[in-house]
Structures are given as C-alpha cells and as structure tokens.
Design goal:
four-stranded antiparallel sheet; binds adenosine-5'-triphosphate; 10 strands; ABC_transporter-like_CS; alpha/beta; 2 domains; ATP-binding; 22% strand
C-alpha cells in the first residue's frame, strides 16, 4: 500500500501528530458533551476511545472530522487549524453508505474518479484495495448482493482509496453480528499493520481496542473527559491469540476497571 504520508504538506513534519485537540469543549444547550478535551493522534498511530454510552465519543470524532463545531479550544490536523471537512480525512460510520447503482469496484474507485485518476489506473488501484480487504472476487458485484460485513469492507476499501492521512472510525462494526464482527476485526488487524496514517477508532469492545490499538483512551460518563490512557505495547504484527497473553489480560482488566464505574453512572442516570 502506498504511504499517504509521502504526500504530506510542507507544513507537516515527520514527527508532529497528524491531529491534535487542545482544551476542546462542546455544549448542546445545557448538555456538556465534551469538557476540556486534549488528545493527539500520531502519524501511523492507532488510538481507540472506549467510554459509556452518550459520553461524547462521536461528538469528538465529528469535531476531528470537521463535521461538528466546538465551543472552545483548538483543533489542528496536519499542522493546520481545522476549518471543516478535508479530503484526506476518511470517516467510516457504523453503516457506511455504498452507492447501490455502482459495482463494488466502482464504489471503491469513486474517490479516484473524483480526483481525475485515469480509468485503467483506477481499476488497478481498486482491485488492489479489494484484495487488501479480502473482496477480490466481488469487484463486479453490486452492494445489495453483499452481506453487511462485506459492505463495511467495501467502505473500508473506499476509505483507503482516498489515501487518507487520518482515518476516523465510529463503531465501524457496531451494526454487525458477533461472528462477522470478529472476522472484521481480524481483517482490520491485517490492514492496520500496513497503514501509515493516524487512526481514531471508537468502539464499545475492550477486546477490539486492545487487539488493534497502540493506545486506548478511556472516557468518563458525560461530560466526556479522559480518565485513563493505556499504552498497548503488545508486539506487532498481532493475531487474536495475543488477547490470551498475560499482558493483554492485564490491559483488558485495567481498561475495564476504569470503565466500570463510568458505565454504572450512565446506567443509573438512564434508569
Ligand atoms: N446534535 C445534537 N444535539 C443535541 N445533543 C446532542 C447532539 N449530538 C450529541 N448530543 C448529546 O451529546 C452527548 C454526547 O453524544 P455522543 O453521540 O457524542 O455520545 P457517544 O459517546 O458517541 O454515545 P454512544 O456510545 O451511545 O454512541 C449525548 O448526551 C447526546 O445526547
């Protein structure tokens, strides 16, 4: 896979983080969704956020995507103040939309087409990406002929075709059944090792966060603040087997113990 960072702007340095939020707050009327958040995502770093329902995870992701305003603080991406959505930030949602009238290959090639890449090159690049996500046999299919998990893989391939320097994924496997979810996190794990861009990944699964991340941020119940930061220094490349290692069990336990009280607070408010 080509390195998206090879095309970094002159303002960027190899070592500066790709995305930084400093003292970011966001209110919706009387609701404080984000309270003085600081988070930086390194180039090539995979950062997960876990936190109780409604704590502000999606709001933070949308702020980084330039889709949501913030009331105070600053957000920079690629060393520039963020003013709105940008072409090299790829966003994947729980049920990412595909274009039903286009084949899988043409869905993946869409961003390349918009950028004016020649047809032959588009096709070759799309096929390469379909292979990366394990869909090489399905290039001529239409999205409606695929399962939910396969459609999410199309969305991931399409996102990679943008050669992003930042990927923001909001519970990308949240709508999938347990088995498909396991398969998808396995496949994402294969892709993650080839990525050179920063990733912010929101998940409700502690296992997923430990398996995929370099760092896990634990968010408090609303108003969202970070209450723990856990470095996941398990060796890469990883396989699911790593989750059974004593190191991974300790990490899982730590994240869960930080999260447990917060989850209880959320449940007592919503009961
Ligand atoms: N557009 C909006 N208008 C009003 N309130 C909002 C809006 N978006 C989010 N909120 C509120 O902000 C808080 C944080 O929401 P957010 O969706 O960021 O949480 P979350 O952690 O992603 O939740 P979940 O895990 O359930 O998806 C919630 O109380 C939510 O109701």
């Amino acid at each position: 896979m080509t390195s998206p960072n090879a095309q970094s702007t002159p303002a960027a340095t190899a070592t500066s983080p790709i995305a930084v939020a400093s003292s970011v707050s966001r209110h919706f009327g009387s609701v404080t969704a984000l309270d003085n958040i600081d988070l930086s995502i390194g180039r090539g770093e995979f950062v997960s956020i876990v936190g109780p329902s409604g704590c502000g995870k999606s709001t933070l992701l949308e702020v980084f995507a330039g889709l949501q305003d913030h009331d105070s603080g600053t957000v920079t991406v690629d060393d520039r103040p963020l003013t709105g959505p940008r072409s090299r930030t790829a966003v994947i949602f729980q049920e990412s939309a595909t274009l039903p009238w286009r084949t899988v290959r043409d869905n993946v090639a869409f961003a390349l087409e918009v950028r004016g890449v020649a047809k032959k090159e588009r096709r070759a690049r799309a096929d390469e990406l379909l292979e990366t996500v394990g869909l090489s046999r399905f290039g001529d299919h239409y999205p409606t002929q695929l399962s939910g998990g396969m459609r999410q893989r199309v969305a991931i391939a399409r996102c990679l075709s943008m050669e992003p320097d930042l990927i923001l994924a909001d519970e990308p496997f949240g709508a999938l059944d347990e088995q498909t979810r396991l398969v998808m996190s396995h496949e994402l794990l294969q892709i993650v090792d080839k990525l050179t861009c920063g990733v912010l990944f929101i998940t409700h699964s502690i296992q997923e966060s430990v398996l995929l991340s370099d760092r896990v941020m634990v968010m408090s119940a609303r108003p969202g603040r970070f209450i723990d930061e856990v470095a996941v220094d398990l060796p890469r490349p990883r396989s699911e087997d790593v989750l059974a290692s004593p190191e991974a069990v300790v990490l899982h336990e730590r994240i869960w113990s930080s999260l447990r009280e917060e989850a209880k607070k959320t449940m007592s408010v919503t009961r």
